[in-house]
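Could someone model uridine-5'-diphosphate with this protein?
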Amino acid sequence: MRAGVRVVVTGGAGFLGSWLCRRLLADGADVVCLDSLVTGARANVAELESQPGFTFVEADVCDPIALDGPVDVVFHLASVASPVHYLRLPLETLRTGSVGTTNVLDLAERTGARFLLASTSEVYGDPLEHPQHESYWGNVNPIGPRSVYDEAKRFAEATTAAYRRCRGVDTTIARIFNTYGPRMALDDGRVVPAFVQQALAGQPLTVAGDGTQTRSLCWVEDTVDGLVRLAASSSSGPVNIGAEDETTVLELATTIRRLVGSTSSIDFVPLPQDDPRLRCPDITEAMGLLGWAPRMPLEQGLSATVDWVRERLGADLDRQPA
Ligand code: UDP
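Reply:
Sure, complex below.
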C-alpha cells in the first residue's frame, strides 16, 4: 500500500482486521479502524492506538457511517466470521452483510475510495467442483443454519458488483479461505484454536464427523498480503485468497497433537449440518493477477500459533486472582 493513503478497515479489531491494520501502518498508511466490537476486541489493536497514523472508531456498519475527511481505500471486513458466532447471531449476520455492506459502499462512493469486500470461500457452500475456481457459482443450502453467513456474503458480493456496474464505484472482491494464526479468538470454536487448546490441556481433540472433510489453511500474514495486493491492483475480482495446502480435519488434529507434544485422544463428535466436505482454492487468478501465493509452510505456522496460544493461556492464568 502506498505511504500516505488514508485507509478505512471495517472489522479492524477482529483477527484478520487487526493484522491488516498492522500491515497497513507498517506500509505508511493512515488507518481508521472501525469496529462494533461484537466479536472483535479492542485488545487486538491496543498497541496500535499510540501510533500517530491510527484511529479507532467504535461503530456498527449497520448504522450510517459518519466519517469526515478523504478516504482512499476501504477494506470491508466487518462481519462475525466463525460458525459459533453466526449461529448465535443469525439475524445480525444477515443485516451486517446486507445493510452494513450497503453503508460501507455508500462511504466508498461518497469519498471516491477503492472498495475491497472481504468475501469468503463459504460462497461456494458444499462445493461440487474441486478445487474451487472463481468461476464456480457454488452449492449453498439457502435455508440451512450456515446460510445466514453464506447468503449474507453472497448478497454482499451482489451488492458490491451492482455498485460497480450502476454507480461506478471502484470495487473488488476477495474470497478468503480458512485463515489461522496468533490473535484468533480462543473461544469461537474454530478448528485450529480448538485443537491447540485441547492438545495443550491434554483433553480429547473433538474431530467432527469422521474427520475426512478438508480445509486449506492459510497463514494470516499471507492472507493479509493477498488482500493488500488485490486492493492495490485494478482487478474487480472475485479473487480467491487461500492456501492450496489441503488437509483433512483428522490429519490436522494429529499434526497439532504432535506439534504440541500431547497424548490427547481423538473424540469423534457429530458433524455440524451442512459442514462443507471439501475446500481448496484454485489460486491461478491470484498468482497471475497479483503475483501472490502463500509462503508460510503449514507446520511452521501451526507451531507459531501453538506458541502464541501457550503464551496467551499462561498470561490469562497469571491474571487470575490467587
Ligand atoms: N471442526 C472440528 N472440531 C472442532 C471445530 C471444528 O472437527 O472442534 C471442524 C468443522 O466441523 C469443520 C472444520 O473443522 O469441518 C473447520 O471448522 P471451522 O469452524 O474452523 O471453520 P469452517 O471452515 O467450518 O468455517
